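Workshop exercise sheet. Pairs work together: one partner reads the sequence aloud, the other fills in the structure field after running the prediction. Swap roles for the next sheet.
Pair: D.N. / O.F.
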Amino acid sequence: MNQPTQQQIPVDLKNAQDIECEECKGQYFSPVFSIKKLSALVSPTGQEMMIPVQTFQCSGCGHVNEDFSP
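Structure field:
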């Protein structure tokens, strides 16, 4: 069975904007998770669910930028 191939599009990161922490202006971030609780009333399974949502926090001060908030 053939797997579809993804086309690699070259990107020049010199044209990309650096993201800074809104609090300390740091430029390094670590992946973290927030946990969302979904009520059984709206859950697709009919049971309460805990859903991990990955986001990024500043490695320097721990702040999560508003754009990163789930």
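Discussion prompt: Strands lie at 29-38, 49-58. What would you look at next?
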